[in-house]
Amino acid sequence: MLSNDDIIKRRRGLMLVLSSPSGAGKTTLSRRLVEEDGGISLSISWTTRQKREGEEDSEHYVFVSKDDFRKMRAQDGFLEWAEVHDNYYGSPREPIMSSLANGRDVMFDIDWQGAQQLSLAAPSDVVKVFILPPSMAELKNRLIGRGQDSDAIIKKRMTNAYGEIARADTYDYVLVNEDLEWTYEKLKSIIIAERMRRYRQPWIGGFIQNLLREDV
Ligand code: ADP
Ligand code: 5GP
Q1: Ligand 1 geometric centre to CA of 28 (Å)
Q2: By three-state DSSP, how is residue 177 classified?
Q3: Hey, how many other C-beta atoms are within 10 angstroms of the C-beta on 28?
């Protein structure tokens, strides 16, 4: 019999992309998932934006200068990168590849441009989930309620939100984050189902052969 550990080691890790306009709830959802699900790690992006109050370096982002970001990019150090709200954001290649090699799933809190680049690089490994707010008014309330951005930044994020929401139709799954608990349950269901895809369980062929050899 395979133990849970064996199964985790012998499966092919998936890359779960969560995107949404800023304020729709993807950070809340992704952090909870990583805390509660031992099989998934969060990719910590590099960014050139200013640290917000309460954010920690290397925990929320790796905060770097534009020069350092460009150096890393020149060395092909990012699996994907994009310019968002006048700053650079990128997913560092090395920690992601090492998690996948250890049979762990990796979750990305990245925008549609990054989602598209990852899909092109590894189409069968990427699952893309888009989080929508229940309304634009509620999105604005959440940005204000989060209390981390100035009025000018909130205005800019709201303007950008329209363009980002228009990209939701390029995603595999779309969730409307009205009730947080219910959205979280739906997100977990997506992950459970995607892990069960036959090609993500490379051990299953041998397992089936063993079943067929069993004579009872
Ligand atoms: P994002 O990462 O998409 O920018 P956050 O996870 O930071 O969004 O969420 C923005 C704000 O909205 C936070 O204050 C969070 O607590 C709140 N929030 C998230 N989901 C919900 C929800 N379903 N209902 C009410 N508030 C929510
Ligand atoms: P924020 O500044 O609110 O943390 O993030 C702004 C936007 O940048 C969000 O849409 C977020 O998903 C996106 N983002 C964060 N990290 C990355 C990354 O590594 N790559 C890409 N393409 N987008 C990112």
Answers
A1: 6
A2: coil
A3: 16
The CB of 22 under 6 Å from ligand 2? The reply is yes
- The per-residue pLDDT for range 63-108, each reduced to its tens digit, is 999 999 999 999 999 999 999 878 999 999 999 988 888 889 999 9
Report residue 35 as tokens: 């805390």
Close Cβ partners of 128 (under 8 Å, ≥ 6 residues apart): 17, 19, 115, 119, 170, 171, 172, 173
Contacting residues for 191 by C-beta, under 8 A, at least 6 apart: 16, 33, 37, 40, 105, 127
Q: How far apart are CA 100 and CA 136, in angstroms?
A: 36
Residue pair 95/43 in contact (Cβ under 8 Å)? The answer is yes
Q: Atom 23 in ligand 2: which residue has the minimum CA distance? A: 110
Its pTM stands at 0.89
Q: Which domains does the chain have, with CATH numbers?
A: 4-43+105-204 (3.40.50.300)
